[in-house]
């Protein structure tokens, strides 16, 4: 890889993105960009009534991630410094296409492209896949009260949306390296060897 890479960890809710990005940042001495979650004023309302709150929620995530991406470009990418993030801005489109309907979905898609098309995208994506049982168990383990409302049906759709999105990214952006991690089998939290293998692979990709 000729330049300092921009790395993103992705996967459905509860896959372990923040956990893995934080562990890798510490191991490889990289700055880490984390999703803004707790300060989000709409998540609670959204999980209680998705149809009423999806546009506000998706716009909030999009504006926050746009600002974070601008800052990431200024602080790291333009200065040739590697950085790891616990999301790819493309997740806005994955969620928006699932939660929005009709003209709001069309408008949101347009705004997404206007804001992000000219910004740098990650060179490497670590995509954590996991099945419904694993994800539901991890969401419960994390214990955020507003996430108690998350239904298995919504999660199953997101699992499939993520698979489709990664397959489509691989075709549209062939220079992006996508490393798929089987989050059901590979346990980077409990198993030191599993984590070491991921860190080693990433180091190789970065050189
Ligand atoms: N491989 C793993 N084994 C066991 N627990 C995990 C694993 N990965 C994540 N967790 C736990 O699952 C929960 C969700 O992880 P988190 O990193 O917040 O996911 P995400 O950022 O993808 O939503 C946390 O409580 C975390 O400690
Ligand atoms: N509808 C959307 N929900 C989102 C988006 N990004 C995150 N989220 C939700 C999912 C979780 O409840 C919480 C934290 O996300 P993690 O994946 O880090 O667990 O926020 C989004 O763009 N749209």
Automatic annotation (TrEMBL):
Protein name as annotated: Deoxyguanosine kinase
Keywords for the protein's UniProt record, in alphabetical order: Kinase, Transferase
Keyword Transferase on entry: yes
A Pfam family of this chain: dNK
Organism whose genome encodes this protein: Paenibacillus helianthi
Deoxynucleoside kinase domain ranges (all copies): 7-206
Gene3D superfamilies: P-loop containing nucleotide triphosphate hydrolases
Record InterPro entries: DCK/DGK (IPR002624), Deoxyribonucleoside_kinase (IPR050566), DNK_dom (IPR031314), P-loop_NTPase (IPR027417)
Molecular function as annotated in GO: kinase activity
Keyword presence, Kinase: yes
């Amino acid at each position: 890889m000729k330049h300092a890479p921009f790395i993103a960890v992705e996967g459905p809710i509860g896959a372990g993105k923040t956990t893995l990005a934080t562990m890798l940042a510490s191991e490889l001495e990289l700055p880490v960009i984390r999703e803004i979650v707790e300060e989000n004023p709409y998540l609670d309302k959204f999980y209680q009534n998705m149809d009423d709150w999806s546009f506000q929620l998706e716009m909030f995530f999009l504006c926050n991630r746009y600002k974070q991406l601008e800052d990431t470009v200024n602080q790291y990418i333009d200065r040739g410094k590697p950085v790891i993030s616990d999301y790819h801005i493309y997740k806005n489109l994955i969620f928006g296409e699932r939660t929005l309907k009709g003209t709001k979905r069309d408008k949101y898609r347009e705004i997404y492209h206007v804001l992000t098309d000219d910004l740098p995208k990650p060179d490497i994506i670590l995509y954590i896949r996991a099945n419904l049982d694993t994800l539901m168990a991890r969401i419960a383990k994390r214990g955020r009260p507003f996430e108690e409302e998350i239904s298995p049906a919504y999660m199953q759709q997101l699992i499939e949306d993520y698979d489709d999105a990664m397959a489509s990214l691989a075709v549209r952006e062939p220079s992006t390296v996508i490393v798929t991690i089987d989050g059901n089998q590979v346990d980077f939290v409990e198993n030191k060897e599993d984590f070491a293998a991921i860190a080693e692979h990433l180091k190789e990709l970065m050189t």
